[in-house]
Amino acid sequence: MEKLRIEGGHALTGTVAVGGAKNAALPALAATLLTDAEVRLHNVPAVRDVDTTCRLLDQLGVEVSRPAPGVVVTRGRGATGSEAAYDLVKTMRASFLVLGPLLARTGRARVSLPGGCAIGARPVDRHLAALEEMGAELHLEDGYVEARCDRLRGAEIAFDIPTVGGTENCMMAATLAEGTTTLRNAAREPEINDLAALLTTLGARIEGAGSHTITIHGVEELGGGTHHVIPDRIEAGTYLVAGALLGNELELTHCVTEHLQTAVDRVRASGAQIVTDSDRIVVSRGELHPVDVRTQPYPGFPTDMQAQFMVLMTQAVGSAVIRETIFENRFMHVPELHRMGADITIDGHNALVRGPTPLSAAHVMATDLRASASLVLAGLVAEGETVIDRLYHLDRGYENLEQKLATVGARVERFRE
Ligand code: UD1
């Protein structure tokens, strides 16, 4: 089993290049199911979820090659497969994103229901209801969604909550539907815009991505094209917090600062010294004060940054309240942070963080992707040698984490035990 050993307390100086966004790359890969033509994706991060999606595409009849770092090229073999099996979907919920494209392209799909995960129940009921409105016939059997349709037809879909995956699934399905689909109360995350940009390159007709209402005029078929995936705003945000804790002019490059503006504002309000350009952030440690945050859909404070921000607040002088409004069980990192000396009380959706508490190294267990990132941050700031177990969570979404950190002065190494 691979683990990470971190010797805490070292200042971070130098440059980290932010990689491509996992959460944009995964829907982009799913979208390649909509065409047999060649699609070239650049800036695809080398993370495990991307490997998993490439394997899934291969099972579904897409030829996938990775000719250079960060580049994935796909070409359809005539959509031969239609099943996404439980073994794969259970390791990565985003595999559910193949449902919309498969249905639209082939008229049938059998996709395992993802089930719950460490951060909550995370149902897919809104994805299913929307696809039904577009004319899909759905049956749930043996834990699978069995879906069939002739050609999907355009529909008026009003989401009662803005769901990122649901918006992506429907937007992809609607590109090949007959007529016009309108998605109301759509998610507005930058990853939605990025997917719309890719689909448009392939020949789709989409208006309004990034706003609450997205309109998709269905076309007969999509072609090929080249697309550059946007930078990973959560990876950037994670290094931003590392810089706020230990930075001495830690520079982040290759980012879109606007995509993480709320996180930048909150971290700056906590006392970190931050200078930004449109694609570059320089962060240095300052006197840290408590700042309350509440997770919200974009452009609000991202739930995927909540765990990392909590570590920052353990070092602030005073008490901060962190409210999680997106997922019901996203405080799995708290018991591990307690073991490192943090003073955090959970009351329902709120976590009260009392700082400053010196953190001390411990052997800790990663429970999900972003919780793991928070443990890395805690390890960087803790006194002594922290060991993080279950590294596979981290590897799902962070590219070259230990190399990137080591380059800027952290003492981090991966080892096997
Ligand atoms: C995506 C991101 C994830 C991020 C989340 C919220 C990817 C691969 N993952 O996840 O990193 O934390 O957005 O920004 O992009 N919901 C339902 N029914 C549905 C769909 C969602 O009840 O059919 C609920 C969820 O349980 C959750 C909320 O809606 O409470 C938001 O979920 P959603 O935006 O769909 O998140 P994901 O797309 O799964």
Question: Count of helical segments?
Answer: 14
Gap between N and C termini, in Å?
6 Å
Radius of gyration from the alpha-carbon trace, in angstroms: 21 Å
Q: Within the CATH hierarchy, at the fold level, what is the topology of the largest domain? A: UDP-n-acetylglucosamine1-carboxyvinyl-transferase, Chain
Instruction: List the bound ligands.
Output: uridine-diphosphate-N-acetylglucosamine
Write down how many β-strands occur, each being a DSSP E stretch of 2 or more residues: 24
Helical proportion?
A: 25-40%
Q: Which parts are unreliable, with pLDDT below 50 for 5 consecutive residues or more? A: none
Total separate domains: 2
Average pLDDT, all residues = 95
CATH-level-4 superfamily name of the largest domain: Enolpyruvate transferase domain
Report the top-level CATH class of the largest domain.
Alpha Beta
The structure class reads alpha/beta
Strand order across the biggest sheet?
Answer: 22-23-1-24
Beta-strand fraction estimate = 25-35%
Mind summarizing the main beta sheet? 4 strands, mixed
The name of the CATH architecture of the largest domain is Alpha-beta prism
Using the alpha-carbon principal axes, give the shape: globular
